[in-house]
Amino acid sequence: MNDIVLKAENVSKRYRLGQIGLSTLRDDIDGFVSRLRGKDERIGRPAGQETFYALKDVSFEVEKGSAVALIGRNGAGKSTLLKLISRITAPTEGRIRYKGRVASLLEVGTGFNQHLTGRENIFLNGAIMGLTRAEISRRLDEIIEFSEVERFIDTPVKRYSSGMYVKLGFAVAAHLDPDILICDEVLAVGDTRFQEKCIRKMGDLAGEHTVIYVSHNMHTLRQLCNTALYLEEGRLTYAGELEGAIGRYAGSSRLTDTHRDFSGVKHEGNMGKLARMTYLDLNNVTSNEYEMGGGIDMTLGLEAVEDVKNLRVSALISRPGSGVVASSFSGPVYTANAGQKDALSLRLPLGGLGPGEYDAALWLCFIDPIGRMVSYDVVPNAFRFSVGQNLDMNEGMLWNEKRHGIFRLPDMEEGGLKREQES
Description:
Layout: E1 4-16, H1 25-36, E2 51-63, E3 67-71, H2 78-85, E4 93-98, E5 102-105, H3 118-128, H4 133-147, H5 162-175, E6 180-183, H6 192-205, E7 210-214, H7 218-224, E8 227-232, E9 235-241, H8 242-252, E10 259-261, E11 275-282, E12 289-291, E13 295-304, E14 308-318, E15 324-329, E16 334-336, E17 341-349, E18 356-367, E19 373-388, H9 391-394, E20 407-408, E21 413-419
Parallel strand pairs: 3-7, 3-8, 5-6, 6-7, 12-19, 15-20
Antiparallel strand pairs: 1-2, 1-4, 8-9, 10-11, 11-13, 13-17, 14-15, 14-16, 14-18, 17-21, 18-19
């Protein structure tokens, strides 16, 4: 493989849709008899006939020292590919070969034993990667210092917050001398300062080591990566320079439907298990272009497993391929009741946004008494919209296309909460 440290050859991953496991011995026997007849009578259709390819015929090579961005919309197959590279699961077809040790951070708490302390989990992860106890001990102080959880390092990790999980998980993955470091966008759970710290660390690793990074934040990818792989509906449609992949991503993000289903969206952190966004309807929309100074009317589906109080919805607005330029919060707080499905009407104000295209990310969050935002659910690329020129409003003035920093839009107007009937 020479300088090639990772090679995928015609890799496909197929899943069977529907219920796979059964709950009792009687169910197993009934299912077995039904399959002998050629039909699963419990669900009224032939068993195991419907399949889905999360990845199909994916081939690529990654050179040593590369920093590779893995780009694609939600459901494109990015996380599946990372799991195959990490050998969490095996490909249905094809094969993946690599040189050296692979460290991965695919979700909060990857590889952690809930009942062990942070210190014990460092040694556990190192042993899984093939390091000796002496090798791990030499790196221990550096890992703990980087993680910023020194005070809780001898506490069982089941008591850690999602942010503490991420900090320790990344510190372990990045400091155990991996030849290939894989990181899914789990860093979104951490605070901004720690994210920047991690990006710098991955930049230091790139060169002698190889980094594969997944994110919907194109600004971050530009900081870290030099090449990219672009996935679309499970197929690799582009491999090359980063800007080429970003251009494809920007083009694919156009609004094609006023209804967006969030059921397949990856939910960040442990909080997403308690309350989450389920769908988005853009109301009274004939195109994705809005007037300057206007607003976007939307209905957001919400559901909760447990009672959660003081929730708010935040919209983060960014230019395609760049960082966040504006944000807006819902005005009133929202209470989610266990087992209840709700539809929340909102109006996102566009005042202050100049002409051009924008991406909107949606966050379901809780603001604590000292102003910190605790994330329950994140949809990184909820929808794209454009703002048209309005000469009556700006009297022909030219807008500065290079906006700097983040400015706050007015709060979103809350148009009422509708309790949906259980189906």
